[in-house]
Specification:
alpha+beta, Nucleotidyltransferase, domain 5, Herpes Virus-1, 3 domains, 6-stranded mixed beta sheet, 3-stranded antiparallel beta sheet, 9 helices, 17 strands, about 30% helix, globular, ubiquitin protein ligase activity, metal-binding, TRIAD_supradom
């Protein structure tokens, strides 16, 4: 089964994840996933491996061969191949010479297809890094086992559904996503795009149906989006769990970890405004969002450091370009997209 969910211009630089599985029931399957530079899913496919009994390495090479063929047909020029199987990685990297004829033929086929790319590299990774391709291969074997081997296979007409967003009325029922609480249904691609947009907006992850307040969970949507988007989703959940007025971000460059000011002991004034970042360990002032300044008030510290850092200067330049304004109370940047010029800070509502 092939699927190009993005249906867009393919990136020249992609990552190929593949998996070939051999089961105890003599049923073998493979899974292939091609991801772009930003971990977006470009192509996926899975299917059974027909033929006599094969080894794990043979199944792996068959999966890789299928993945490379599809990538080359998509017009991809540069590809990085990820494998979690040591013998397979050694075979395709030239460190191991195949002894059996069938293995040698498969390796030759793989190397011949790799010549169609401008560049191709091999990387050995852990099983967790290729779990998506592993799931595709496992899914094939499970579906094969569910069909009795002594019963002739009859193709059943797939049930069709209509997506409420794109209005495509020719979507297979198994390609539809159902929201648990409200039972609204949408095609996988529309749900994926909905999640991406909501994450970029920083909005609550609700059902795509207009005015529906049912919530989506990242555990239910894990197979639709990339691991990178799942991490962003988890971060948004953490942010939404903390009241806006209690959120504080570490001012240390390359950190910006979120913390909660109410967790600070209220013993004295210094302890209230002084905070140690849980991620980088640096101390900072929660009042002026600057590195901690012993025996100095916030105003005195700013007078002693009148020149902003490089990152602060870039932020101010961008704010001037975008015509952002800074709240005098909470110091957050504010952007007026539409409506009247009256802006009420959420920190002091």
């Amino acid at each position: 089964m092939k699927n190009n969910p993005m249906n867009m211009q393919i990136s020249e630089y992609v990552n190929l994840y593949f998996k070939g599985l051999v089961s105890n029931d003599s049923l073998d399957g493979f899974g292939v996933a091609i991801l772009g530079q930003k971990d977006e899913l470009v192509f996926q496919m899975n299917g059974p491996i027909r033929g006599s009994s094969i080894t794990v390495s043979e199944a792996e090479l068959i999966a890789l061969k299928r993945g490379l063929t599809e990538a080359a047909d998509l017009g991809i020029n540069h590809i990085t191949i990820y494998s979690d199987n040591h013998p397979t990685h050694d075979l395709i990297s030239g460190r191991l010479v195949p002894k059996e004829n069938n293995m040698a033929l498969l390796v030759n086929d793989v190397q011949r297809i790799r010549e169609r790319f401008s560049s191709s590299f091999t990387v050995f990774v852990s099983r967790s890094s290729i779990k998506y391709a592993y799931k595709l291969a496992s899914k094939t074997i499970v579906s094969e086992i569910s069909i009795p081997m002594d019963t002739p296979r009859r193709a059943k007409p797939a049930r069709k559904r209509t997506c409420a967003i794109c209005l495509d009325d020719d979507v297979n029922a198994d390609q539809m996503f159902t929201v648990d609480k409200c039972r609204h249904r949408f095609c996988f691609e529309c749900v994926k795009r909905h999640i991406e947009v909501r994450l970029l907006e920083g909005s609550v992850m609700t059902c795509p149906q207009f005015r529906c307040k049912s919530r989506l969970t990242y555990t239910k949507c894990a197979d639709l989006v990339t691991p990178k988007l799942i991490k962003i989703w988890q971060k948004r959940i953490l942010e939404n769990s903390i009241p806006f007025e209690e959120r504080v971000y570490c001012p240390t460059p390359k950190c910006s970890a979120l913390t909660r000011v109410t967790k600070v002991s209220n013993v004295n004034k210094e302890v209230v405004v002084r905070r140690c970042c849980d991620k980088c360990g640096e101390h900072f002032c929660t009042k002026c969002k600057s590195p901690w300044h012993d025996n100095l008030s916030c105003n005195d510290y700013k007078k002693m450091h009148p020149n902003p850092s490089e990152n602060e200067q870039m932020l101010h330049d961008l704010a001037n370009q975008k015509m952002w304004r800074q709240c005098r109370k909470c110091q957050h940047m504010i952007e007026l997209k539409k409506g009247c010029v009256l802006i009420v800070c959420r920190y002091h509502i």
